[in-house]
């Protein structure tokens, strides 16, 4: 897919989910190597990327980590890969990969299923501040 930064990893997230918004803010604060860029799944670009990589656009209950030209990951696999990229203490979370992906995904799915009830939902996607705008793709 053209016009995507080849040297960045793209995180597609539910733009109206408060938990997802908090996770994005958490990642941005700890992305010391400037590895990640962000796209809301509901955006035009988010939908184009999902279509391009073959992910059902109706399944916006999962975070997706897309490495342009390499691969994409979703659910627990994406979360653990993101954590390992953040390094430090968060890199240790990659140790959860010792459990079968299916078990990690059951836990991930349980949280995803309840995220709106537990954390709430926005009426529209977050609009980044001018300082953060460079981290988001349009």
List the helices and strands and how they pair.
Blueprint (H helix, E strand, L loop, with lengths): L8 E5 L4 H13 L5 E5 L3 H10 L10 E4 L3 E4 H12 L1 H4 L9 H19 L19
Parallel strand pairs: 1-2
Antiparallel strand pairs: 1-3, 3-4
Describe the structure.
It comes from Flavobacterium plantiphilum. This is Thiol-disulfide oxidoreductase DCC family protein. The protein is 42% helix and 13% strand. With 138 residues, it is α+β, with helices and mostly antiparallel strands. It has one domain. A four-stranded mixed β-sheet has the order 2-1-3-4, sandwiched between helices. A hairpin with a 3-residue loop joins strand 3 and strand 4. The model has no long low-confidence stretch (mean pLDDT 86).
The percent range for helix content is 40-55%
Whole-angstrom Rg: 14 Å
- Give a quick account of the main beta sheet: strands, pairing sense, barrel closure: 4 strands, mixed
Number of helices: 5
Low-confidence stretches: none
Shape: globular
Distance between the termini: 14 Å
H/E order of the elements? EHEHEEHHH
Strand content: 5-15%
Protein name: Thiol-disulfide oxidoreductase DCC family protein
Organism: Flavobacterium plantiphilum
InterPro entries: DCC1-like, DCC_oxidoreductase
Pfam families: DCC1-like (PF04134)
Keywords:
single chain; 138 residues; alpha+beta; 4-stranded mixed beta sheet
Outline of the structure:
The protein contains five helices and four strands; from the N terminus they run E-H-E-H-E-E-H-H-H.
């Amino acid at each position: 897919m053209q016009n995507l930064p080849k040297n960045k990893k793209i995180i597609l997230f539910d733009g109206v989910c408060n938990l997802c918004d908090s996770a994005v803010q958490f990642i941005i604060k700890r992305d010391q190597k400037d590895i990640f860029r962000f796209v809301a799944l509901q955006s035009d670009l988010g939908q184009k990327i999902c279509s391009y990589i073959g992910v059902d656009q109706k399944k916006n209950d999962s975070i997706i980590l897309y490495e342009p030209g390499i691969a994409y990951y979703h659910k627990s696999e994406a979360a653990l890969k993101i954590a390992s990229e953040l390094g430090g203490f968060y890199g240790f979370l990659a140790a959860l990969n010792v459990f079968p992906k299916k078990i990690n995904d059951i836990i991930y799915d349980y949280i995803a299923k309840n995220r709106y009830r537990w954390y709430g939902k926005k009426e529209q996607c977050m609009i980044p501040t001018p300082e953060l705008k460079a981290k988001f793709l349009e």
